[in-house]
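>> received
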Amino acid sequence: MKPKEIQELIDFIASSGLAEVNIETEQFKINVKKYPNTAVKAADIIMPALPQVAPQQVLPVAQAPAVAAPVAAEPKASAPAADTANLITIKSPMIGTFYRSSSPETPAFVNVGDVVEAGKPVCIIVAMKLFNEIESEISGKIVKILVENATPVEYDQPLFLVEPK
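>> returned
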């Protein structure tokens, strides 16, 4: 996480009314606590040392059967890279949980092959128990859905690839 992103997160938490937030990933751990009548009191960031990061990156390589297929597929994917150059990415405007439909009983907002218009909802991102309907900023055809349903997403994470009209 970049310092600017951390500061934006702290500012967001300060204005949200939350008293404490803990975020932990493989790369970092953030603990932000807000005390009454003060700004954000503490932000502890623990980054693992470089030697600790290297084994985590080496671990998937040790699992050769799981990694071998995608690595072999990448050179083949380089030929259609020219095809994907004209695609536009719809990105997550916030941190939260990605959902393809408004409830488990309803169909997904969009599927691969669907044509979307600018302003049409494409998904929902739930953040702090608020359902945020994400609308397409462009008109075009959904080529690929990059995120699985009910998974966490980060700010600016690619969600959909769209072939513009």
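>> The longest strand covers residues 40-46.
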